[in-house]
């Protein structure tokens, strides 16, 4: 006979002592294990990397929810990837705190604008953000783009607009960033590599 | 890193200088411990502070911030004077034998050709003597007074142990002990590795700090060998990858020098960047430049890029001036910039001289922040009291803040410090409406493209024709992008040795950069990543950690650029006849018919040793440069004082005040006035990371804020006594650019040094503080740092400047 923990307490409260239940052959052990089941047993394991220093430690991110559309994943635990030949499962005090970084109360969640001279943020939609930013960019570019220099050489540069790129981005968005910026004529471009 | 993390375990001697791996790169530092455990390797740490790296070292010596070249130049002098160099290596694999122009001179702190007005050198006399065929001339006997070896010997003969000690503050016996330990690795059977970080780069002589050690490693014969190399422990997790993608002004992806106003046509541009070999039979690998740039233009402009239009060369923006981060903020400060985007970058906190950065941002019309966190830069306009005194009503900059994802919320590849690109998989969506960086860039670009298509505007051609081969245009997939980066055949590619043999069919992914062509038949977004996604699939996602050699090469784990090579210049790990210098740690060897072994050969596979093809294939001379004319301040590193020095002069040139500091350093007009002197600011300051924090991010994470909740500064016991400061007191640290307040930590870890006859105290400044986050709000350390940079790479001098300190 299988007894869950809830049933077990019900039986107890009905006036029978725990020891006498055991004597009758009822054991709650399996049921207890089911209630406090292992968190990671049903979690999805995803191989990822620590975003901090350049050791780029391998990490295993555990999430609940199977990543299907109606089961949005939530990361519940992160630990070092024991297969990674560099960090071999270890993490430092920074990497060990990654979950708190992901869940930081200071994560930005929505596009915002701080209007000229204002003292506060205002939430806006992505569409409004992209519309307003690109309007600025186009006006700036059209007014300040240099097609030819004084000597008449074609230079096609836009140097009143600058961009500092992230060294925490993956290679792929990094590449897309440089590709699109150069197509716009951007020369004032830099990254953390220098500082 | 020329080598890689796991390879550190193969060293006999590990030197940590200009870095603190135990705290800044803890999980990489384990390989130092492994070397100590596995091969009884010894660890030397030279640092202004007795760091945690120092605490497990076999020998520690203190040094005054900003005097590393004096120390390392002294090591060179020791090695040459005591004949502790690897002779065969130096003679064959470096330019020691090369003859330099007879007009080359070094006189009282200046090399020949200095132009004081331009603050730069005319390098005409820094060149090789050439024969009638245009090849560099050499003196195999190393006796000519004009050969590099003799010039180097003469240059460093001034770096006596006495003078070294006087300048660095390192006790002479400590210095000599370290010289002796380093010298032991000059025999072929021993290797030394050097691990450095921003403690070397962030100086007005940063590049030369590193070069001096590179020279030492060449003299010892440690380059290209297991357990050797010059190993930069880099900053961010993908800073190597982003550097390789070249998100900076001087270069295009794969370090292809970007066009400037002087490069009028495509042919002119190619001619200047395609060098001729400087010695017979050399690989001179940069001669392939036309293939790399043509393939890049094809990746960007697709069918619009044709031979007739120079593969759209005119569409690439041409640079007329410097546009590095310092130059950008200088331009912004002058009101020359309209708009600016910070993508995962927090310059208000991370650039030097915070006040200047804040003033500059306030002159923008629009500022866009793309970040997962609420950064200080995004709130530069907001009044945070003493931490950030502003009047928002006066700041007319429109600021947009776009939420982006963090790494676990995105798939893609990261390239670690050891050049190994590794794929990571998305684990969950980011919070709220956050989007990935690629999606945000696509949204901005596609909207602009739509506007230019509809309304026209200045030069829309490059925008309208940019190749965008993405299944979902608004969401370029990382897999699609990595395939583009890696390269593919646009038409059938033939074997150059057998024109009937197709080596890659049209549409196929290429196997590597050797298959790139300059006729438009291949495309490749970044030649050094060529082959990372071949016909075999995504090689960065490989997870076979097998290590048959035992050296930790793991050739089937991820993909190391270039060509999956784990140790650069590995041909130099074998003697001229092709036999490894050390059979127990053999990289590659000549088998009689080909190069093979425990790594991908950094050599033409069939180049027999008799052909004398030298290992440093990226130089036109085929050998490494002890004498390097490309450097801005001189072909040999020379000690110059930091721009803010506690000394009255440069003890190497006490009678020449013009040679006190680097005469070619990057200083903008106006910034000269922002420097302080030892009269008002008598203490040396240096900045660093803490083990519990990563820059300005982790102060937003709860556990890290608990571990290290509040900003502190570290001072030695002697200075504390002098200033009446007790541990736990609140202190004010001032430089000529501003002040910060923090809690004093009084420590034995920072010693007071005897330098040039006076006592020099050092103030240690952790840099992780800021006014946003879940830690206790604090000041930004870079309020104090000077806006002056290295002339080669324009890195600011964060690591050596002057402050004063007092109890609040």
Major beta sheet summary of chain B: 6 strands, mixed, barrel
Span of the ends, CA to CA of chain B: 44 Å
What's the shape of chain B?
globular
- Total strands of chain A: the figure is 8
What do we call the CATH topology of the domain at 1-93 and 156-235 and 566-617 in chain B? Dimethylsulfoxide Reductase, domain 2
What coarse outline of chain A follows from CA principal-axis ratios? Answer: elongated
Share of residues in helices of chain B: 10-25%
Number of helices of chain B: 21
Count of helical stretches of chain A: 6
Oligomer: heterodimer
Most residues in contact: chain pair:
A-B, 121 and 164 residues
Quote the average pLDDT of chain B: 97
Low-confidence stretches of chain A: 11-23
CATH superfamily of the domain at 1-93 and 156-235 and 566-617 in chain B: Dimethylsulfoxide Reductase, domain 2
What is the CATH architecture annotation of the domain at 1-93 and 156-235 and 566-617 in chain B? 3-Layer(aba) Sandwich
Mean pLDDT of chain A: 87
* Strand segment tally of chain B: 35
What percent of residues of chain B are in strands? 15-25%
> What percentage of amino acids of chain A are in beta strands?
15-25%
Q: In total, how many domains does the architecture of chain A comprise?
A: 3
Helix fraction bin of chain A: 25-40%
Keywords summarizing the entry:
heterodimer, A: 195 residues, alpha+beta, Phosphorylase Kinase, domain 1, 3 domains, three-stranded antiparallel β-sheet, three-stranded mixed β-sheet, 6 helices, 8 strands, B: 808 residues, alpha/beta, Dimethylsulfoxide Reductase, domain 2, Rossmann fold, Barwin-like endoglucanases, five-stranded parallel β-sheet, 17% strand
